[in-house]
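Risk register update: the risk of archive-format incompatibility is retired. Evidence:
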Amino acid sequence: MTDAPRTEKTAAPAVTRAIAILDVLASAHGQPLGISELARALGIAKSSTANLCVALEEGGLIQRGDLGYRLGRRTVELGGAYLASFDQVREFYRVCSESPELSHELVQIAVLDGTDVLYLARHEGRAPLRLTAGIGDRYPAALTAVGNALLARLDDEEIRARFADPETRPRVTEASTTDLDALIAKIRRAREAGFGLDEGEMFPTVTGVAVVIPPRNAGDQPLALGASMMGLAPEDGRRERVTRALGTAAAALSNPLLVGDVA
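Archived output:
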């Protein structure tokens, strides 16, 4: 559940509350929620919640069933329209499938959103790895390889200001980076190395590596391309091979003339 929104200071509290309903339903991962549950999550009256749900249902953004409300099909259309604005996402699956190394790996694309990363696409090369993010999931940027790769584009002062709140640096595993100075040091290493690294910070048995896809046009929002791996042996060189393959794929995705040249 998300925290109740602070609507009293917004210019359009009804819109803020409607967005909060969508956020709560998204965090329920398909579990239907009734009016009472939604009202409690938002901290407002059930009558106001019911009115908002009627409007959202009429717009196709949510749908009502016997057990409560879920997100509606209209959210898929809007999400598809958003993803269509990223040329790299449209070409991501082909680039992964044509890469001799990445075709066998679990590869994801993510974008930085505040102190989180939002996952936009996912290629599953081997058997599905459940302990990783799916499309539409949000994870703390401080703990993920894709987040670290994207944060490396920011200067230290921006990172310190953005992650000043300890809640942006949660302890998910024993390896999670929760200290702000340690986070900045880790981002510096990612900046120098040219890739982000997550060694069990989100999931104890999963290692992630990620690189930034250079934007095609000035002003475009940068994306990160990352791979999640289990069972790495230090001597097998897999992490290094995957990191090089990610760099090659990122270059292809940043330049349309290179798409297909990912060997």
